[in-house]
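Consider the record:
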Amino acid sequence: MDGDSLEFTAIRGVQAGSAYYVVMVPLKIVPRLFKFEDEAMPADLRAQRVLNKARVPAIASYIANNANEYILSSLCASIDGEIEFVPAAAEGPLRKVGQLRIDLGATILINDGQHRRAAIEEAIRERPSLGNETISVVVFADRGLKRSQQMFADLNIHAVKPTRSIKLLYNHRDATAALSRDLVAAIPLFRDFTCYDSTSISNRSTKFFTLSSIHQATLELIGKSKAGKVDDTDKPLAIKFWSAVIANMPDWQRVGTREVSSYELRRDCIHAHGVAVQAIGKAGAQLIASCPNDWAERLVRLKDIDWSRANRALWDNRALVAGKVNISKNNVMLVTNVIVRTLGMTLTAEAQRIEDLYAPPAVPKLRAAS
């Protein structure tokens, strides 16, 4: 920085016929350098969305708690003011590398990354040593509000969040995600027929389970929350439970031996969907708590459930809504109720409440024993 300008080493590029620059900015400078528009300003006069303050602490905590391995994608900013690029050489590759000088009176606005900017500010307060580390910033010359708004739309319109299954596959900090990956690897049917890429399975897929449904069902089984601590007994219990479930689900075994296709079971049976997998895990937790010594033997009663989607009297408004399988919280509970009663247990007070409110009226509702 000199008296009249800020100066950064930059790389110059061209998009849509206009120059842009990539610079490295120390984290401690980010909060002071990049402004965020007043959220009180009307939406049509802003170039980005209102800051969601609830998101900032989670991002800040991620940065501060993973100081040796955090990663932040580039910020995108527009400069409304005088800028000058001085290349390192007149010809050759170095003509695209040089010094970017920004007038001190210029306004630099974030087009994309306002939550990262706010989180960086918070993380540095907690861990000042991060201040000298850097983040890359893609800088454009400001061409007015309309262009800045369009930039925000273009940067975000094609953004697609990764599916829950793929996040579980790649998340190596979450002990429960690791448990689910280990569980899938340990059980042949899961290993061979689990989809890691999505939370739903296409009709053409040969996969039968999703990693996300197995994960959620296993969390229900062991009574853990997302990103919870895993005990030494959790993995052996989960492997034993799901192995016992598979031993008492003949249709699942037929998928494993390829006597029936995954598509056929998804088309014809409730147990081929995540709502049933999660319900089995939820019922399993109650079974293990109620019958700690013989819960595995009791799972044989799973064979007594008519899982056919054609059994509309049982599954309409329980697992099926307007003829389609639904996986809402209430639907998981309603399917759990069928399993719980089939396994010879009584419904909890909350399960009974959901049963009374939402269970199909065409058949007698499941009742808890007095």
